[in-house]
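Technical note accompanying the year-one report. For the benefit of new consortium partners, we illustrate the data format agreed upon in the data management plan: each record pairs a sequence with a structure-token string. No post-processing was applied to the example shown here.
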Amino acid sequence: MYSRMDNGDGTFNSRCLHCLMTVARDVRTPAQLTRMESRHICVEKALFQLMQMQQNLAAKQQRAS
């Protein structure tokens, strides 16, 4: 998920809502924003997803026993 901000001069910034890193600055088109956002690798998001997977697995194992 990203937060896109209008700079008021026809350009936009984009920030990752997981790690709060600015992934695009002074970008002029939505296509450029999307491209830059798709290149962002968010370690915090990956860690969160891994933790969720581990919790789900632990819950399944607990129900099975």
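Partners are asked to follow this layout when depositing records. Residues 50 and 57 are 11 Å apart (CA to CA).
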